[in-house]
Design goal:
Chain A: Its cofactor is [4Fe-4S] cluster. The complex is a heterodimer of chains A (465) and B (195). Chain A is α/β, with parallel strands linked by helices. Chain A contains 16 helices and 19 strands. Chain A has two domains: 274 residues, Aconitase, domain 3 (2-Layer Sandwich), CATH 3.30.499; 158 residues, Aconitase, domain 3. In chain A, strand 3, helix 2 and strand 4 form a beta-alpha-beta unit. Classes of the chains: A alpha/beta (465), B alpha/beta (195). The interface between A and B is large, with 69 and 53 residues.
């Protein structure tokens, strides 16, 4: 029987099968950040265990950093201490760090792909659930807890049982104005927030084949929002062209050798999956969420469904919304374009294309947070920054920012925020904040109109999407 | 890690579905660099409203006590923050019962001696109604024999757990020691790789 993409990568990383137990899985790359690593460094020091393969670890500061005045000392003392602890730990243990102010600093899941650290066929982990992002390259990438961060520090391995496999196929042509974010929000709304628990997902079909790497990263990023530990897309020419020439990508003959290997990775025609779902691209529309988990999503023109369920009602109460209500036309005072889901150059190009020549509505606070220093630089060079600033948007420096509200970038209680991030949990963007997840295009259109508008009507004349 | 064998305790009902790790411990409390003290902020935004204790939240209701939390479906979804497991153990919980657990949370819990017990939706429903009707009811969790039961009722169900993880919990072992003891195999694997 044939093997899946996931099988091929997983099986080639199994060090040992524990009798009647889990497998020891080898990890190629370990990404770390300031929030989930300090306790792991402590753990190792307390046990007097050295780092096993420090050269396979890359660190950055992203979750708990300010997005203003990054050249100045961090104001919040606890945040300052946490970021300094990362620097101290990396210095002490010889780990490469792209800290604040470094030209490679950025959200860990934006920084690693753009530097060519992420490559097909690898196993990658990070103490962050959105590590699934890197699956866009045909990589097994998943989030881990801090105990596991310590395990990888100590052994470059994890003890795991192989997850089950799921394939989600989407064929057809996406409608104008439907972005990769809409595709994944649609899938999660269809399948539910825990449908992927225990599974690793492969996304297949021409919709994903025709997507850019940025789009594939957006899709794989949100695999965890349906409970799946990770999501993958078969590496192809789009992948190879993206990786080629990047800072840490293999070069010359080495690159060609790797490509020959990467070409063997896609799922065999006779391979089978534990679960399969198929969707039609024509049915997908721009999406918005109305509740407090990412599975609570509707097409932008639809009404909130009615469901007699305590958790569902609690969720709507938090959001200040009613069953049967439409979100179209709803006044919105906050817009956030950023996060590891949608803060890559392509996301800002699309938003800027829409915004160009327009002004944000007077009621809206619109925040633009690039995913990395490199993206910020590119935004400047391409003239996109001027478009945002002329339209009245506020440009910030790179970091996780209002996606999780660990720093000062928070949405006030009771306010709605149309956000390109990944989670609409209660309080995620600040205590009492109400998050509506959407694509960068819907977010841009919301900022201009000051309310939620049907973006497919708005963009008929645009060439870009 | 502390050993776990059996536990008999009263239980606290929290029948909400999809409790995510941002509810268990909000991001603004993740700035600490040690594992201690997270219990103080467990379910912070449900426990406190406008700076005061929210009397409607179950942890503020002294009628309910115990080291077992009985929660709605899909407990622990969302972020990978192990701080969620640290907050629950620091508060005093030893067992979480639900009809479904998110993967990363489940692993984090097991790595901290916190036992996630997955029961059928029917048993979850029965347990919740018994505990609500009689908050003094004891719940028994027996890891060795892999069952959960409610004292004074017929409710009893076996639960699944990975044999290796069970051994770790019963002996207080953790994965680091095991992995480090396999260093030879790991180095041999590295040497054998061709691509």
């Amino acid at each position: 029987m044939g093997k899946t993409l996931f099988d091929k990568v997983w099986d080639s990383h199994v060090v040992h099968q524990v009798e009647n137990g889990p497998q020891i899985l080898y990890i190629d790359k370990h990404l770390i950040h300031e929030v989930t690593s300090p306790q792991a460094f402590n753990e190792l020091e307390e046990r007097n265990i050295p780092l096993f393969r420090k050269e396979q670890i890359v660190a950055t500061a992203d979750h708990n950093v300010p997005t203003k005045d990054q050249h100045l000392p961090i104001q919040d003392l606890l945040s300052k201490k946490q970021v300094e602890m990362l620097t101290e730990n990396c210095d002490k243990h010889g780990v490469t760090l792209y800290g604040l102010g470094h030209p490679y600093q950025g959200i860990v899941h934006v920084m690693a792909p753009e530097l060519g650290i992420t490559q097909p066929g690898m196993t990658m982990v990070c103490g962050d659930s959105h590590t699934s992002t890197h699956g866009a390259f045909g990589t097994i990438a998943f989030g881990i807890g801090t105990s596991q961060v310590a395990q990888v520090f100590a052994s470059q391995c994890l003890l795991l049982s192989k997850p089950k496999s799921m394939r989600i196929t989407v064929n057809g042509k996406l409608k104008k104005g439907v972005l990769p974010k809409d595709v994944i929000l649609y899938i999660i709304a269809q399948l539910g927030t825990n449908s992927g628990t225990g599974y690793f997902v492969e996304y297949a079909g021409d919709v994903f084949e025709n997507m850019t790497m940025e789009g594939r990263m957006t899709v794989c990023n949100m695999s965890i929002e349906m409970g799946a530990r990770g999501g993958m897309i078969a590496p192809d020419e789009t992948t190879f062209n993206y990786v080629k020439g990047r800072e840490f990508a293999p070069k010359g003959e080495d690159f060609n050798k790797k490509v020959s290997y990467w070409k063997t990775l896609p799922t065999d025609a006779d391979a089978t999956f534990d679960k399969e779902y198929t969707f039609d691209a024509a049915d997908i529309a721009p999406m918005v969420t109305y509740g407090t988990n990412p599975g609570m999503g509707i097409k932008i023109t639809e009404r909130i469904p009615s469901k007699d369920d305590v958790s569902f009602e609690k969720s709507l109460e938090y959001m200040g919304l009613q069953k049967g209500e439409k979100l179209l036309g709803k006044q919105i005072n906050y817009v956030f374009i950023g996060s590891c889901t949608n803060s890559r150059i392509e996301d800002f190009r699309i938003a800027a294309e829409y915004i160009k020549g327009k002004q944000k509505a007077a009621n809206v606070n619109a925040l633009i947070v690039p995913g990395s220093q490199q993206v910020a630089q590119q935004i400047k060079e391409e003239g996109i920054q001027a478009v945002f600033e002329d339209a009245g948007f506020e440009m910030r420096q790179s970091g996780c920012s209002a996606c999780l509200g660990m720093n000062e970038d928070k949405i006030p209680a009771g306010e709605y925020c149309v956000s390109t991030s990944n989670r609409n949990f209660e309080g995620r963007q600040g205590q009492g904040a109400r998050t509506i997840l959407a694509s960068p295009l819907v977010a841009a259109a919301t900022a201009i109109a000051g309310k939620i508008v049907d973006v497919t009507e708005e963009i008929k004349e645009l060439e870009l999407v | 890690m502390e050993k776990f064998t059996t536990l008999t305790s009263r239980a606290i009902p929290l029948p909400i579905e999809n409790i995510d790790t941002d509810q268990i411990i909000p991001a603004r409390f993740l700035k600490a660099i040690s594992k201690a003290g997270f219990g103080e902020n467990l379910f912070r935004d449900w426990r406190y409203k406008d700076g005061k204790e929210n009397a409607d939240f179950v942890l503020n209701n002294t009628t309910y006590q115990g080291k077992i939390l009985v929660a709605g479906d899909n407990f622990g979804c969302g972020s990978s923050r192990e701080h969620a497991a640290w907050a629950l153990t620091d508060y005093g919980f030893k067992v979480i019962v639900s009809s479904y657990f998110a993967d990363i949370f489940k692993g984090n819990a097991l790595n901290n001696g916190l036992l996630p017990v997955q029961v059928s939706p029917e048993v979850l429903k029965e347990m919740l109604s018994v505990i609500k009707a009689n908050p003094q009811t004891n719940v028994i969790v027996n890891l060795e024999e892999q069952y959960i039961a409610v004292e004074g009722t017929g409710i009893k169900e076996s639960f699944e757990i990975d044999a290796y993880k069970k051994m770790c919990l019963m002996n207080g072992y953790d994965d680091i020691d095991f992995l480090v003891s396999n260093k030879d195999k790991i180095e041999a694997f590295e040497a054998s790789r061709t691509i």
